[in-house]
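User: My advisor asked me to double-check a structure prediction for Polysaccharide biosynthesis protein before group meeting. I don't want to rely on an old file, so could you generate it fresh from this sequence?
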Amino acid sequence: MSSKLIRGTFILTLGTFISKFLGLFYVIPFYSIIGEESVALYQYGYVPYTIFISIATAGVPLAVSKFIAKYNSLGEYAVGRRLFKSGLLIMSITGVIAFAVMYLFAPFFAELVVLNQDQLYSLEDVTYVIRAVSFALIIVPFMSLMRGFFQGHQSMGPSAVSTVVEQIARIIFLLAGSYVVLNVLHGDVVTAVGVATFAAFVGAAFGLLVLFWYWVKRKKHMDELLEQDKGEVQVSLVEIYREIIIYAIPFVFVGIAIPLYQLIDTVTFNRAMAEIGQAKESDVLFGILNFSTQKIVIIPVSLATAFSMSLIPHITTSFVSGDLNHVKKQLNQTFQVLLFLTVPAIVGIMLLAEPFYAVFYELSDVGTEILRAYAPVAILFALFTVTAAILQGINEQRFTVFSLLFGILLKFALNIPLIKMFQTEGAIYATAIGYSASIIINLLVIKHYANYSLRSISKQIAQILLFNLIMAGAVFSVYSLISPLFDLTSKVQATILIAICAVIGAVIYFLLSIRTGLTDVLFGSRLDRLKKKLKLSRA
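Assistant: Sure, here is a fresh prediction for Polysaccharide biosynthesis protein from the sequence you gave:
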């Protein structure tokens, strides 16, 4: 069973990674097709959609899989099947309602971002894009429940495959559709972006077809399990749904954290920019802030997401058993490895912001400066994700809701004043302040309930920061020396420049870490072979 569990976890993790990887790098051709000025229009539609879909589905697969697995282990297979059937009906209704609300209120959402006649896009343009993406809400909640059902039966393949197929279908339709509209049909960019956002519906449809195929293929086995049902437990669906909702709410809030921050930018950025006389530039700058740079900054955060997914069960087991010493060791390793891997990635993005932006989009002084300012916020995204997961692990998830809402309130209060003072960077500063407040609250709660403090790893944190400083000095020197030799308008040359600097930085960073024994503390004996090969073992 443990072998099956490990295999299933690997499959699901691999599927999630592939999907995220595709979701990060499709922006390169998409940007080339629609241009810099149009990515803002795409985000105007996608931000409210992300919030709607997160509220409708976040936590549902995890909650459903948890309860189905629980009753399957008791031999009460009929309970899980009853939950599945009623859940499909409820999620179908939820999806239709969410679609209707988003479609009907699209003009209202559009009014929140179109505040000045000098802006590039009209109310009708933004309304059209929001309505185009809203159709996906009909399918996705239904699909999320099916994924949870399969996961509850320790069958991770259907979720992994459907996730990847959904992403591939979405990206193909998005890229092909927007290209055909602009270059074959010679349509306008608003129609092209509308087609691109409608791709969410197409992708969801393909993902759902994959799940239906798995259902038909495995229904015979599911029915055989149903015949073995003991029938000794009678559970009210009301009770099950109440527990599922309570369990899922923290995941909903964690899932919509970044979209909520983006929503605040969506409804305040153009207003603040218009008040300082920059309405004409606000759409382009909003696109750079909320789409272009955000896609790059989120890359290191994917690592934190993977941590949080695997963190909860281990910490929960140790915490419930009362082994707080083991909980502290797990938390120490988690924070150390997180910082060890994400900080150098963030430093690298800051130092190489110009070629990074050129590779993903085009050479841009404005894009470079915004990316350089935004990159450090990635560590806050990562720390919030992991600390929220820890709170879930120690059964104090209610504080996740409080800390997030407090951070959101700070962001909302500070966004317009800071944008007026610092323009686009002001929105970044407000995000950093909001996330920092949420993280501090989470850490205080962890300290109180798990008796844990980051002071226990202060030495390792200092080493990581020092090594990053040394690495940054070396990379900056190399970059300053060789960058004039490269034409950054060429994506190939910009990529080569990044690769050279990244290799140099990685070698310096890991050599320092191995020599000082930091890797021993973080990874144990797993690097012994590498150390022997490099002949760098300490005496």
